[in-house]
Structure formats: C-alpha cells, structure tokens
Amino acid sequence: MTSATVSAETTVRAEEAAHFGALAKDWWDPKGSSAMLHRLNPVRLAYLREEADRHWSLDETGFRPLEGRRALDMGCGAGLLCEPLARLGAAVTGVDAAPENIDVASAHAARGGLPIDYRVGDVAAVNGERFDLVTSMEVIEHVSDPAAFVLGLASALAPGGLMILSTPNRTALSRLAMITIGEGTGQIPRGTHDWNSFLRPAELTRLMEDAGLSVLDVRGLNFTPLRGFHLSDNLALDYFVSATRP
User: Do the domain assignments include residue 3?
Assistant: First the structure.
C-alpha cells in the first residue's frame, strides 16, 4: 500500500473543530452536552474488546489485554475512549482538531494518572508512525475528505493491526433519530450532524478496501427503549466496521 502524507487542511473542517471545541468544558459530565457519548461508550468498548480478543486471540478475562500495544484514537474529543484504552494496557495517542478538547483531555488524564500522548491535529499529526490499534468513533462524517482521512488512518496502522471505525448510516432512521429528535429536543447539541455527510456501510467499506485494508466485520449499533444502545445486526442507525492491514 502506498504511504499517505495528509495535511491538516485536507481533512479538518474548521467549523466542526470549533463546534466540538465549544463543548469541551463539560465533555466529562455524563449529564452535560456530551451525555449521548457517555451512553454510547460502553457499547463502543464492548465491540472493541470483542474484536481485539478475536483478532489477537486474547484472554477474554484479562484486565490489561492491550499491554505492549500502541493505540491511536483519531478525533478523540476529551478522551472518553482514550482513558479506557489506557486502562486496558495500551500506550495511547489521542488526536483531535480542537485544542480545547486536548486541553481538557490532558488535564483529566493527568488527574487519573494516565500517561496518554495527546496531540492537536488530524491524521497528519501521526505521519510516519505505526499503531497496533487505530480507532475513530463518529468522526469520519465530520471530515472534509473521507477518502483522504481513511487513507491516513490506514497508513498509521501497523501490518496485522486492527482498525475500528463507527459512524451513522445515511438512512431515514438516522435523520429522524439523530437530527429531528436528537438535535431537535436538545439531547444532541444542535448543528452536530449533517445528514448528507453520513456514509452508508458499502461506501465506508469501499474506502477502507481502497486504502489497502481487509474488512473483518460490520456490526450495527442500535437503540431500543428496553435495552438502550446495544450491538445489533441492524445497521440502519449507526454501525461499526473493523479491518486489518495485511
């Protein structure tokens, strides 16, 4: 696969970075503007752990299964995923386009004694580096060039490594749930989503394959009143894709 050099201007939308940076101050408040992310995080971690255990044949009962591995979370916000990855044993690098998010993430990690390497930027911030695990959750729908973004992530993935992305599907259900209801009722900050930027699973898997990756799994993230957010075969609302670099 050809190595990519991707500039920050290629993938970062300034208005998106400003939008999420303005939310930084209460990112860690489970009842604040990022409450939805707190509700999503357990499902993200469950899928990540399941895929990592399967990919590397890990001990499913181990407390630090990622010990000795480097992990990158691209578009890390204030570190909601970075901190659990660090507690699972990984040497974590978190990158976000909003300096405000990185300031909050760094301070929160320091209070918890977690040595996470936080950086301001996008995929260009890790050019030339390789990571065993690359994650980017609900980020690709906010970048200006999804193909360049995926290529940059793929370039950062070590051979045999594991990449996991999540993003909303471009369906009538996602428009209703995330924009009409979610943003309309204030459960999600207004202006967070542009439905036209959502990617269908076939579109995202094609971008990953074009970047030289082999797709391993596609799984839905669904919501029901009884179960809340949970993993599902239904891809209509939101979904995960896992892939590896041969």
Answer: no
